[in-house]
Every structure is written in structure tokens, then in C-alpha cells.
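2024-03-11 09:14:02 DEBUG pipeline.ingest accepted 1 chain
2024-03-11 09:14:02 DEBUG pipeline.ingest length=383
2024-03-11 09:14:03 DEBUG pipeline.predict start
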Amino acid sequence: MKQSRMRRSALVLAASLGCLSAALAAEGPIKIGSFLSVTGPAAFLGDPELKTLQLYVDKLNAAGGVLGRKLELVHYDDAGDAAKANTFVKRLLEDDKVDVIVGGTTTGGTMAAVPLVERAGVPFVSLAGAVVIIDPVKKWVFKTPHTDRMACEKVFEDVKKRGLSKVALVSETSGFGKSGREQCVAVAPKLGVEITVDETYGPKDTDMTAQLAKVKGSAAQALLVFGLGQSPAIVAKNVAQLDIKLPQYQSHGVASKEFLQLAGAAAEGVRLPASALLVADQLPGNDPQKPVVVDYTREFKAKFNEDVSTFGGHAYDGLMLAVDAIKRAGSTDKEKVRAALESTKGYVGTGGVVNMSPSDHMGLDLSAFRMLEIRNGNWTLVP
């Protein structure tokens, strides 16, 4: 009698599990929406982002998916055009009916998406840099990269360590560059730094010697260039051509091998704030990020035979934060996933240790930024 009851219980349990599996399968895949700048002027950012998302969606699916369901990546290439980003986000929300969005390579594209996801009530993890994305806080919007404000603070902190205080600022008129300029101008006086020259250039400009000539004849003790894409490399070359001997800083917008290749010898000695990912092998063994950045570097190189960039790392963090939130929510219910994202604590990613809250939808502090210097054509960690 007892064995009979046990067999019946086992059959009931098996049937229940079967029904649960069937129900989960009937729900279909979990849709991860993405819009990235895979082509166009920001392609060196968007290309590794897309490759990273594809790599880890496949990897997660091979391990059984999430909550017993496969992930489906629904992706569009906005080519760095904010208007296209707006169109594609509408498609992701209205036609594809995605569960969460991980993407937005540029600040312009991200900000074009923000009102749409806020109105639709869909969790959105941006991969763009400007602080305006999460300050002020927006209910459904999160981001993975360090902000431009943090970049200014990290650079000025290093400038002061060198005993300097007068900085020339040359910034790009893109969304990223404009926001970076505004943040640097705002935080400089608080950190005892004076902006002695404030010049701008267009993202498609091919010669910045006119702006840099004003830097050379000024009282500046250091130069900070705030931009992304090919133009910061042009600035670095123009600095060398004009024989400007000032210590040069770039923003985190150039944290990829492409900048090293484009700038060549002109990049030697340039410093920039970036994530630990670029110096994975230089981190001490007890650094909590080391296992994460070493594993990501190994897997990305094995798949694509390419060097990693911080931008691919941002995509890795965005996907993993979303997946972690879905797991903790126990469903793809959008409000539950949003709340889980907002309560993320102790997530160790390529960008740092993330601790979010209702008032902080990024969750990184200044210690997540490492100061790097380019030596012999490669990244080195500044002690």
C-alpha cells in the first residue's frame, strides 16, 4: 500500500513537472530586444556589442535558457542615427513585443528611445555613456557604462595628483561630447581645476589644428579631449604635429584597439579612464573583477579572434543584468523585472561591482574606473 501511494505521488509529481515544462514552452522564447550602431561612425562601439550579445545568448541557450525558456535576440542596426533608433525601438515595442531591451550604443540613440520605453513600460538597459540617461532617474531606464561625469572626475583627480590644475578642454559636438563638456565644466571648480581653454569640433571634422593652436598658446598644463569614434585619434595626431608637449587625456569613449591603431605613435603617453576589462591580465589576483574580465576576454577572443573592448563588455553586463533580474523576478513580468533590476546588489561585471537603488540606475562608483596609460601601443594600469 505504501509503495503504491509513493508510485502515485511520483506519477503526480512527474505529471505536474511535465505540465510546468509544457506551460513554459508554450510561453515561447524570452525576447531580448536590441538596437545598436553596428555600422556608421560608431561601428567600433556597436560591432563588439552585437557580437557579445550573440555570443552569450547562444551560450545561455546551450545551457538550457532562462527559466526553462530559450532567449531570442531581436536586433536592429541604427547606424548611429537617432531617428533610426527611434523607429527601431517602436518596432521592438509594438511589433516584436520584446520583454526587455539591451542596447542603445550612443547617447543620441538612447535618448531617442527613452520616452518610448517609459511610455510602454518596458525595462531598458542602455549601453551609452552620458549621465543624462540616468540622471534624473527614469523609472524604466538603466545603464551599464560609467558616466561622462565620472570620467571628468577621474581625469581631474589624476591631474591633481600630478600637481597640475589648469586644463584645456577640446570636445566633440556629438551628444556624447556635448554632455561630456557640460559635466567637465561643472565638476572642474569642485575639484580645484580651472578650464583655461574650451574648444569644440564636429564629429566629421578632419583637422583640429585651429582649436589646438589656441591650446598651445595658452596657460594650460594638461589637455583633455572628449569625443568618440575616429575624431579623437585625429586630435591626438594633430597634437603631435603641433608639437604640443602637455600631458594628454582622452575620455572613456576611445577605450578600444581602434583608437590605438588610428592614433598610432601619437597615442603614446595618453591617459584615459576605462574599465578593468582592458587590463585583465594586469589585475591582482584578489581583484573581484578579475575572474569575470579574464573569462569574457578568453571567450570573446576564442569566438571572434579579436581583442576585446570596453563596449563589448558593456553589452555583456547589460545582458547579464537583465537575465539576472528575470531569474530573480521568476518571470518576464515587466514590472517585476524592472523592480529586480533596481534592486541589483553585488553584481560583479566587466565595468565594476554594481549596486543599484531607486535613486541610482547605474550602480557604479568612481572606484569602478581605472586610470590607464598607453605605452608601446598598449594599455597599462596607472598605479
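2024-03-11 09:14:41 DEBUG pipeline.report The CA atoms of residues 296 and 313 lie 8 Å apart.
2024-03-11 09:14:41 DEBUG pipeline.predict end
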